[in-house]
Amino acid sequence: MRSLLIGSILIAAIAVAMPQMFAYYVQEPRANSASAVDSGDAAVVDGESQSGSAASGQVSIEAERDGHFYVDAEINARPVRLMVDTGATVVALRQSDAVSAGIRLVPADFTNPVQTANGTTMAAETQIDSIMVEHIEVQQVRALVLPDDQLSISLLGGSFLNGLERYEVAEGTLIFEN
Question: What is the DSSP code (8-state) at residue 152?
């Protein structure tokens, strides 16, 4: 599990460091189409439910000039800007965004070694009560919190995306559906 966690953070860091890679996939819609691995009720990791869907509907997000998709979400009912990263296994939050969302951590919580583009660092695992993007909400979302100097922007990863009924990238548009 630990190597999977480290690998997913490494993938997230590469995606942040190499915007042209994401732009390439936006230009190849079939190669970048993705579906959630379950029906949207819950993603299961190590036998535990990791996320569940609440509010329903569809949200369309246009790619920005750099080819990435950014969302102004609400984490625990507090605003946080994130970059969508379909290659990240979990949501990865900058520590300042976690604090803004009411997630309180102490130094002893940072026990998970992760490899980022900026080197090896320690991350804290947490559970987010709710992430809402426009009118789509996913509850009980697993996340990692990293020091601000190790992550340039918080990432909306698989622990949120797998709580959706469907997500897809086509022709420069990302679609979330519940």
Answer: S
